[in-house]
Amino acid sequence: MIKIENLHASINGKEILKGLNLTVNAGEVHAIMGPNGAGKSTLASVLAGREDYEITAGSVTFFDKDLLELSTEDRAREGLFLAFQYPVEIPGVSNVNFLRTAINEKRAYHGQEPISAKDFMAMVREKSALVELDSKLSTRSVNEGFSGGEKKRNEIFQMAMLEPKLSVLDETDSGLDIDALRIVSHGVNALKTAENASIVITHYQRLLDYIVPDVVHVLYDGRIVKSGPKELALELEERGYDWIKESL
Amino acid sequence: MANYTENELAQDLQNQEYKFGFVTDIESETVPVGLNEEIIRLISSKKNEPDWLLNYRLKSFALWKEMTEPEWAHVHYEKPDFQGITYYSAPKQTKKYESWDDVDPELKETMKKLGISMEEQQRLTGVAVDFVMDSVSVATSFKAKLNELGIIFCSFSDAVQEHPELVQKYMGTVVPNTDNFYAALNSAVFTDGSFCYIPKGVRCPMELSTYFRINAGGTGQFERTLVVADEGSYVSYLEGCTAPQRDENQLHAAVVELIAMDDAEIKYSTVQNWYPGDKAGKGGVFNFVTKRGICHTNAKISWTQVETGSAVTWKYPSCILKGDHSIGEFYSVAVTNNYQQADTGTKMVHLGKNTKSTIISKGISAGKSQNSYRGLVQIHKGAKNARNFSQCDSLLMTDECGAHTFPYIECKNPTAKIEHEATTSKIGEDQLFYCMQRGISEEKAISLIVNGYCKEVLNQLPMEFAVEAQKLLAISLEGSVG
Predict the structure, then answer these.
(1) Contact B428 A97 (CB under 8 A)
(2) CB–CB of B107/B24 below 8 Å?
(3) What are the pLDDT digits (tens) for B207-238?
(4) Chain B residues in contact with chain A using a Cβ-Cβ cutoff of 8 Å
(5) Which pLDDT score is estimated for B93?
(6) Contact B147/B202 with Cβ under 8 angstroms?
């Protein structure tokens, strides 16, 4: 589904990603772990198309398209979704209006008619139940006045509504209590199919108790330095990252 | 706003240039260029006015000649050459329109292009429209139906002929001809406008609307609006404005007077889209308007304005809260782009006891424009327990534009409570990125964010106009983030 080869990216002249390789196939869940400053969030931003970053080398192929050539909005319309670490507030814009706009932009891109109000509302009801998001929140302004947990649940709700092919979850577990973590994970698991895939970026093994990955990668100093089965996460939790640094 | 669809917006966004810039090819009757007593007499005689009105004009002219143009506003422009303006221009008409069918087809076409198909409005919506092109009112719809309720809604000229006692009684009582330079000029040369009277206890069943249009070149537009809501009555009134695209600056100096008697309520909404000039700042309308209302006991006046047009805007819709328990409200969205300048706000003058005022002002600056809020909250000695809440927010779209806030507060009664909140923010890269990551294009994201920012004000507009205003905001700000 996505193939990242020798990706180099820098911000303000400082190189963060230094030759990153990663391949994710449909139906797979990949976890990316790593110490602070390794480049985890940079990877998420670069994939989503944040302009602050400069790509200096490498390629990213998303299905058969050159992802780096696509605009931010076209990447989203092609099926790339980023669950933000810090979801943004948009005062005065209701969640439903925001989502309906997003869905219709995507549909227009694929040559489809706008979604009917009836289908849309049915979808809102179904998907908000999935993450136990109070239906009142869907009519409130996007993320405005939401608690930390509500913001993260809202990200997964949006993910459910937009039905992406590849979801990148950037530290979705940060700031969540156990109950919220369970709800968010349940949502992510329920959305998993044989056709879509996820990249879960996290600091802690804890999340991976709920979202079980097929592969765990260690990102260190801008590159993936170790990959392994889900047990690797447990080992990292126990031993930290130093032994990996030393083995390099 | 429920009916607004994304497709409609997309279509409008494609048509991003000022779309009302066309000129209607219609024969006009104009008076010679320039301003002197003779011109004023000529205008007055063309309109077959009574002596008292001619005298009022001449007196105003004499006052105006003694005044100097004020310079305190935060705007810079080349002063109009008052001798280079044509003060009266009317679409030529051989007879008075008795019904809609009599209206010149060219005029009907103009209205259609402006999106105010009167035929449709007559059939579908409950909006009565008065259409003022250049100096005169050309058509008013729904007259008969309003007549049944005793509501008078007609052009100012008709009111002078048919209801001289009402005009004479109220005209100039809220905005006297001594008020300011442009009010004096208007009082001398005004040509038409709208007049509205709601009798005691009547709730006007439909929106009343005046559509102002400058068509002829080199003309100024000087209209007057006078709305009188008698005891216990209610009216919602809307004005819209457009002008053709011209390289020279055109002057618009209007006067609006509102009178809300005891227990009456007037809601006055404006969607102002005068031609703002081109991208380099050439041309555009100078919009120098005096708007003021007076509230008697228990009365309420609410001003809502969406200002997207004009090269220079200079106006302060105000409320004099004379009666006890009266309420004044001001909701404003002012957008400036390219080289536009706006100095706008309100005055809330609290005279009566337990008077209340609310000011919500949302300024949006883009391009190299300058956007100022200027407001005065004045609590007089006798205004016991007066309350005011003001909120002034500014949104900046680029690094080259400016937002300024000049709030004045004068309080002479210790029991008053006055609150003022102000924020300035730049449209967030993070917000835009968030929207775009969800597949929303940058233009649409801006429109969403800006409309969200203005929601409190847009919600005050009648439904049809809220949709129009929403589109207008999107068009005005097209491609403006930098």
Answers:
(1) no
(2) yes
(3) 887 776 665 555 677 889 999 999 999 999 88
(4) 5-7, 428, 430-431, 433-442, 444, 448-449, 451-456
(5) 53
(6) no
Q: What are phi and psi of B350, to 5 degrees?
A: -90, 115
Distance CA A171, CA B218 (A): 63
B431 neighbourhood in chain A, CB within 8 Å: 88-90
**Contacts with A81 from chain B: Cβ below 8 Å:** 437
pLDDT computed for residue B30 by the predictor:
72
Mean pLDDT over the full length of chain A: 92
Answer whether residue B122 shows pLDDT above 50.
no
Which DSSP string corresponds to B375-395?
Answer: EEEEE-TT-TT-EEEEEEEEE
Q: How far is CA B413 from CA B32, B103, B104, B420, in A?
A: 53, 56, 57, 17
Residues A123-162: pLDDT tens digits?
Answer: 999 998 888 888 777 788 999 989 888 999 999 999 999 9
- List the one residue out of B360, B357, B358 whose CA is nearest residue B334: B360
Torsion angle defined by CA atoms of residues B144, B222, B241 and B22, in that order, rounded to the nearest 10 degrees: 110
Structure tokens belonging to residue B411: 């309080």
pLDDT band with cut points at 50, 70 and 90 for residue B142: low
DSSP states of B19-80: TT-------EEEPPSS-SHHHHHHHHHHTT--HHHHHHHHHHHHHHHH------SS---PPP
Q: Are strands A14-24 and A29-33 parallel, antiparallel or unpaired?
A: unpaired
Query: How far is it, in rounded angstroms, from Cα B241 to Cα B458?
Result: 17
Residue B419's DSSP bridge partners are B389
Say whether A104 and B431 touch across the interface (CB within 8 A). Answer: no
Do A98 and B444 lie within an 8 Å CB cutoff?
Answer: no
pLDDT of residue B15: 43
Under 8 Å between Cβ of B268 and B301: yes
Chain A residues in contact with B452 (beta carbon < 8 A) = 90-93, 141
Q: The tokens 């003694």 sit on which residue?
A: B66
pLDDT in tens, A49-71: 998 999 999 999 999 999 999 99
- The contacts of residue B387 (CB under 8 Å, 6+ apart) are B355, B356, B357, B416, B417, B418
Inter-chain CB proximity A76 and B430 less than 8 Å: no
**Which tokens in the block code for residue B270?**
């404006």
Q: Is the Cβ–Cβ distance between B269 and B236 less than 8 Å?
A: yes
CB B242 within 8 A of CB B76: no
Contacts of residue B456 in chain A, CB cutoff 8 Å?
A: 92
ipTM: 0.96
- B18: nearest Cα among B245, B228, B222, B349: B245
Interface test with A, best of B440, B450, B455, B458 (most A CBs within 10 A): B440
The angle subtended at Cα B367 by Cα B364 and Cα B369, nearest 5°, is: 65
Cβ contact, residue pair B448, A90, below 8 Å: yes
Q: In what order do the strands lie in the sheet with A54-62?
A: A14-24, A2-11, A54-62, A65-66
pTM equals 0.79
Considering only CA atoms, which of A233, A18, A211, A12 is closest in space to residue A4? A18
> Is the distance from CB of B272 to CB of B309 less than 8 angstroms?
yes
Tell me the nearest-neighbour CA distance from B28 into chain A, angstroms: 46
Task: Characterize the bridge pairing of strands A2-11 and A14-24.
Answer: antiparallel
Q: Give me the phi and psi of A69, to 5 degrees please.
A: -85, -15
What are chain A's domains?
2-247 (3.40.50.300)
CA distance B400 to B338: 10
Length of chain A in residues, anyone? Answer: 248
